[in-house]
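[job 4471] stage=fold_predict status=RUNNING
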Amino acid sequence: MGGPDREASRERAGAVRIQPVAGEGDAPFAEAAPLVSILIVNFNGAKWLPGCLDSLAKVSWPRVELVVVDNASADGSLRILEKYPSVTVVRNNRNTGFAGGNNLGLAHCRGSLVLLLNNDTIVPPDFLEPLVRHLQRHPEAAVAQGKMILPAHGNRLDVCGSFFTWLGLPYHYGYFKPDGAKYSQSYPVFSGKGACLMFRREIIDKIGGFLFDEDFFCYYEETDFCHRVWLAGYEAHFVPGPAVRHFMGGTAGDSQSGFVLRHYLRNMAFAHLGNLSLSSRMRILPVFFGALFASLAACLLTGKWRQAAAHWSALTGCAAARGKIRARRRLVASLRRRGDREIFDRVLRMPRLDYFVKTFRGKLSEYADEKIS
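[job 4471] inference complete, writing structure tokens
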């Protein structure tokens, strides 16, 4: 796995620029109102695009451009996009996933701030203000995740940022919980969720020269990105604000499907093997892989054959990627400005054991998060 070749990415697609929004992307950073590029990757998301784009047409932030990468959709998405002349449409000639699509789209973004947004979202008009202002007031933060709710699940919360754990498995704070005071404050997180994630464009050159590892295709790519941000000496924060509605159905299937689990577990294992220091690998990886094997055994015992196959594929995929893992370690050594212990002091948080049990059983909504002090 390695960083994308930007020229190769451009060759894969034909960029169709349709009456771009006014504003100079190369102008000096305007402290009051920087240009925000909103980047959406679409694959067969015709069902969701009108609601998303109609809501974005009403945003109150004064300087915004919209860039949509279409990953070779076959459902009429391009016909829908033609109805939105203010959108810059980038046509990919094949589906390169969330990772490749965002890398391709980033080359067409002119803003000093870039917001990644899922196509299956509807945004309130003032959702950008808290994210932009937070990054303006916190120079140590290079990434900010906004608040999202899940209409299909009674408007419970989407992930309010994720923390690292000693198991190597993420702790998704706030996931499937009712909104409340504990989720109405900003705080550092190990990773934000890519469905509504803003970052400073300038950070890309400091974390290896690429946004997402294209070999990831989809899932865990934003966590790998945020991990590199922390390694480079910057931070990722959760920033509450007007909640974006996330319908969780625009480009992916059930979170327990074989496709999702295979990519998620494989990419997570690669990121740990490539990004963690030697001492952290020695401490965390035996527990992490032990947990994967225990989960594999539980899937086999309960007859979850697709999930079991996904676990096995993730484990064998790491062995096949040995050369790319070594290349990632060399990259991390070149960009590292912060040790693992310092990062863990900020964003390692262990939930109670029943968090992982409830996650496996699909009853995460029953877990009660503790307030972040």
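[job 4471] summary: The longest strand covers residues 64-71.
[job 4471] exit 0
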